[in-house]
Amino acid sequence: MTKLLLGVALWAVIHFIPAVAVDFRRNLVGKIGEQPFKGIFALFMVLALYLIISGWKATIPVNIYQPPIWGSHVTALFVLIAFILFIAPYHATNLKRFLRHPQLTGVSVWGAAHLLANGESRSVILFGGLAVWAVIEILLLNRRDGAWIKPDAVPVKKDIILAVAGIVTYVIVAVSHQWLFGFSPFA
């Protein structure tokens, strides 16, 4: 469980740097350059993912609470919404006129959704930890960036493309979930 906790903590701390340590980041980039900074950041992300994945596999799940019977159905719907939100920042859509941080909102929805279907210790650490990180990250970025200037409206066609891309991604991950993670989300 220690590796899983360290992985989630490392993920959060590294991502907090641009939001809370702006001067530290700027000074480090000034000393080593933008690309080396991105490389170091990427190495820490790989390390965090390694710790999360290996920590997940090594942690013996202990039930903390019993998820509701309907939890897995709601999880499926919320994860679909999370996938759409997660890819939204990469496209000009109207969704970004309503959500300042759609990707982080998607992570928080994804994490909370998984807690409706999984009540064991490692799920609470992983999904709960990443959901909490995403909410804190949103608050920190909002504080750092100040007033939000909403983007201009775009054609609805762009929102439809986003929804279709999110649905396709969701279906691919859902169908591959057994192979990727060892169990089917629809079992």
Number of strands: 0
Terminal-residue CA separation: 26 Å
Percent helix: over 70%
Estimate nothing, just give the exact number of structural domains.
Answer: 2
Beta-strand proportion? under 5%
Structure annotation, total helices: 7
Radius of gyration: 18 Å
Descriptive account of the structure:
It is a single chain. By secondary structure, the protein is an all-alpha fold. The chain is 73% helix and 0% strand. It has helices at 2-20, 22-32, 34-58, 71-87, 102-115, 121-145, 156-181. α1 runs parallel beside α6 (121-145), α4 (71-87) runs antiparallel to α5 and α5 (102-115) runs antiparallel to α6.
Brief sketch in words of this structure:
This protein is mainly alpha-helical. The protein folds into 2 domains: 1-59; 62-187, no CATH class.
Write the SSE topology.
Elements: H1 2-20, H2 22-32, H3 34-58, H4 71-87, H5 102-115, H6 121-145, H7 156-181
Helix pairs in contact: 1-3, 1-6, 2-3, 4-5, 4-7, 5-6
Supply database-style keywords.
mainly alpha
